[in-house]
């Protein structure tokens, strides 16, 4: 863990809520900066790269949270947590598909928000290689995909495969346990550092993005969905029968 | 016999004689035919009876003049005068049947000739006077002419080609009239059906509005009403959306404030109460939004894999109710054309209810069955079940079994499910099996009509 406080950028058009949340998060030990428009948030994020996690509300007048996500993601890999109106399932999935790291329904218990932020930070810490609980470096190779858990890079036929940290964790988990079915509960816990919730489709969206990226490199049907259970990476010997 | 009547009934159904088209057609056709027949009857009876009376009077006068002439020619004794005259006139007229009933009297009121006149009542008599060759006047009484036999004449006339022409012309005119009334009505019907299905105001056919008759007034009134209704419905949707958003903003602030208090005084049971109530309000807002969302238009049904939808819901239940075992027997072929989002909500609420009322260890059984024109989904729990009288009430919004207000629901779940099922023109049936629990059957037609 870093010595200085983690810096959170809170973007929401409700100024009172921002003030209250920032008071809460400061009490939780974060350094909080608040902005109330999408424009200001985009500018701030593109200007300096000193934010550890962005908490971004989708419903904002003018430039919406999804617009901010789109323009920031193109240039910065900063972890982003989307706040979505509960029930706007489409927004959640779109947000994840556009590269958000996780989402949280709004209104939410702030303790849940704090826990999610901590989970994201822990994951990023691990991915930077300076986390406390460093895992042994494993080189995994399967179906022409090469993973280096030390540098956290993925290569497909020696071309780098751009993956977000959640996607890298998911792919790494599937590859190290190829041939076994991993439940969605376990995957959510290990990849996103949080328990699976009802109507939680975060893992499905991450897997779908990995499949898309692999498919673009010509690797198809290596991750099998086990309906009602979870996912499985096929071993090279395993013929893919019915991947639905 | 029974078979025949069944056949007749089915023909009646198929041709749709209850339709306004046929009613107007048949009424108008029959009445126009009746009017024409009645007119014909009046005209014919008038002309032919006048004709007949004239001819009859002529005949009477001619016959009377002949008799008078003969009487003056041959003066015979008064005893058998009438018989002789009758014989003569019979010979003269060549046929006995043509003798007309009459009574002739001379100036002294003495009867000189009488034929079948005894029974003629005074009010049926006609009186003429005839001048004899000698210059004397005679009184002649005859029977009023009877109505001519026009029915036979009528039939004769109507069998002509003219009548056939009238028959078909009136049929054609009636059909046209009928069609001109029912066609705009059908157009109006399809207009309102399209509005109901698509929740978008479709353009009203211009021909309907430019007719200038009462039907075009009706059409423009309906268009006005639909526009008003649509505006009101969209305003309501917007209001619900705005209200829910506006409610959520203070709710979010309330939760953070509660959390701030919690930071300072941990394990505060009042704060816990605030948190749980916030959650409850949030769920209620969500359910009301779900309920109102089902009204919104879905442009067109898409193929929905029932098995995949059930699996998704069962996955969610496994997270929410980990202690409730679910037995799922799918029919992987089950697929319908429908609205996945609405179906998901229906299944979520019904399977969620089954799990909610099952204590740990009580099995929830879900089966799907692919049938020729529909898909049957059965959700069966072994919980406390429901009273027979309460079953229909369960489908009303905000009604809860046993009228208990303390359960952790709002009584909207089944209403949402029912609405979603109705959106698919499907059916929701509840029954209480003999061995306890509740069984909910969803019947979803494969194609939403």
TrEMBL record, chain A:
Its main location: cytoplasm. Pfam families: Response_reg (PF00072), Trans_reg_C (PF00486). Residues 136-235 form the OmpR/PhoB-type domain. Keywords: Cytoplasm, DNA-binding, Phosphoprotein, Transcription, Transcription regulation, Two-component regulatory system. One of its GO terms (biological process) is regulation of DNA-templated transcription. Gene3D superfamilies: 3.40.50.2300, 6.10.250.690, Winged helix-like DNA-binding domain superfamily/Winged helix DNA-binding domain (1.10.10.10). It is found in: Cytoplasm. GO terms for molecular function: phosphorelay response regulator activity; transcription cis-regulatory region binding. Residues 7-121 form the Response regulatory domain. SMART domains: REC (SM00448), Trans_reg_C (SM00862). The keyword ATP-binding does not apply. This is Transcriptional regulatory protein OmpR.
TrEMBL record, chain B:
It catalyses: ATP + protein L-histidine = ADP + protein N-phospho-L-histidine. The keyword Membrane applies. Its EC number is 2.7.13.3. Its main location: membrane. GO terms for cellular component: plasma membrane. It is found in: Membrane. The chain crosses the membrane at residues 20-44, 163-181. This is histidine kinase. SMART domains: HATPase_c, HisKA. Residues 242-448 form the Histidine kinase domain. The keyword Phosphoprotein applies. It is a multi-pass membrane protein. It holds the Pfam family HisKA. It comes from the Bacteria. Keywords: Kinase, Membrane, Phosphoprotein, Transferase, Transmembrane, Transmembrane helix, Two-component regulatory system. CDD domains: HATPase (cd00075), HisKA (cd00082). GO terms for molecular function: phosphorelay sensor kinase activity. The lineage of its organism: Bacteria, Pseudomonadati, Pseudomonadota, Gammaproteobacteria, Alteromonadales.
């Amino acid at each position: 863990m870093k010595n200085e406080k983690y810096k959170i950028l809170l973007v929401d058009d409700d100024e009172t809520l921002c003030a209250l949340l920032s008071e809460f998060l400061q009490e939780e030990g974060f350094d909080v900066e608040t902005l109330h428009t999408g424009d200001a948030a985009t500018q701030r994020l593109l200007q300096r790269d000193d934010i550890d996690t962005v908490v971004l509300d989708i419903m904002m007048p003018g430039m919406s949270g999804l617009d901010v996500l789109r323009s920031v993601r193109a240039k910065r890999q900063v972890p982003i947590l989307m706040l979505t109106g509960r029930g706007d399932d489409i927004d959640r999935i779109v947000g994840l598909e556009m590269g958000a790291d996780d989402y949280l329904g709004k209104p939410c218990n702030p303790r849940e928000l704090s826990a999610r932020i901590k989970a994201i930070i822990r994951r990023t810490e691990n991915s930077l290689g300076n986390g406390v609980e460093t895992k042994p470096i494993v080189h995994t190779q399967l179906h022409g995909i090469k993973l280096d858990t030390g540098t956290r890079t993925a290569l497909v036929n020696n071309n780098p495969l751009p993956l977000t940290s959640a996607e890298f964790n998911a792919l790494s988990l599937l590859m190290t346990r190829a041939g076994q079915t991993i439940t969605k509960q376990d995957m959510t816990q290990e990849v996103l550092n949080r328990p699976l919730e009802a109507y939680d489709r975060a893992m499905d969206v991450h897997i779908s993005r990995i499949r898309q990226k692999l498919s673009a490199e010509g690797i198809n049907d290596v991750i099998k969905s086990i309906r009602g259970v979870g996912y499985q990476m096929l071993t090279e010997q395993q013929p893919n029968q019915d991947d639905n | 016999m029974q078979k025949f009547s069944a056949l007749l009934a089915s023909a009646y159904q198929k041709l749709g004689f209850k339709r306004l088209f046929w009613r107007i057609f048949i009424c108008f056709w029959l009445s126009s035919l009746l009017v024409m027949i009645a007119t014909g009857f009046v005209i014919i009876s008038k002309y032919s009876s006048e004709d007949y009376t004239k001819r009859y009077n002529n005949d009477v006068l001619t016959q009377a003049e002949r008799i008078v002439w003969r009487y003056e020619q041959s003066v015979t004794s008064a005893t058998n005068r009438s018989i002789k005259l009758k014989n003569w006139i019979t010979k003269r007229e060549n046929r006995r049947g043509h003798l007309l009933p009459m009574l002739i009297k001379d100036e002294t009121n003495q009867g000189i000739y009488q034929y079948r006149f005894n029974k003629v009542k005074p009010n049926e008599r006609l009186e003429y006077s005839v001048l004899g060759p000698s210059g004397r006047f005679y009184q002649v009484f005859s029977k009023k002419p009877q109505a001519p036999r026009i029915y036979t004449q009528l039939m004769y006339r109507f069998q002509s080609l003219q009548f056939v022409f009238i028959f078909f012309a009136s049929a054609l005119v009636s059909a046209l009239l009928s069609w001109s009334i029912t066609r705009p009505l059908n157009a109006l019907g399809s207009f309102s059906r399209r509005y109901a299905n698509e929740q978008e105001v479709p353009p009203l056919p211009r021909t309907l509005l430019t007719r200038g008759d009462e039907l075009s007034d009706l059409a423009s009134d309906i268009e006005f009403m639909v526009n008003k209704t649509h505006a009101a419905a969209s305003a309501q949707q917007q209001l619900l959306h705005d209200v829910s958003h506006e409610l959520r903003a203070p709710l979010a602030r309330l939760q953070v404030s509660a959390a701030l208090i919690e930071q300072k005084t941990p394990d505060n049971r009042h704060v816990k109460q605030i948190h749980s109530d916030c959650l409850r309000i949030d769920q209620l807002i969500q359910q009301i939004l779900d309920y109102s969302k089902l009204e919104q238009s879905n442009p067109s049904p898409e193929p929905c894999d029932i098995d995949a939808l059930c699996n998704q819901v069962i996955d969610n239940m496994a997270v929410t109710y980990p202690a409730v075992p679910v037995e799922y027997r799918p029919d992987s072929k089950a697929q319908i054309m429908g609205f996945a989002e609405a179906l998901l909500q229906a299944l979520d609420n019904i399977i969620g209810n089954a799990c909610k009322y099952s204590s740990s260890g009580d099995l929830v059984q879900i089966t799907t069955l692919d049938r020729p024109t529909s898909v049957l989904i059965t959700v069966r729990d072994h919980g406390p079940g429901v009273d027979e009288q309460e079953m229909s009430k369960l489908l009303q919004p905000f009604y809860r079994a046993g009228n208990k207000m303390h359960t952790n629901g709002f009584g909207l779940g089944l209403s949402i499910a029912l609405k979603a099922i109705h959106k698919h023109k499907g059916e929701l049936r509840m029954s209480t099996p003999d061995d306890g629990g509740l069984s909910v059957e969803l019947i979803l037609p494969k194609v939403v009509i």
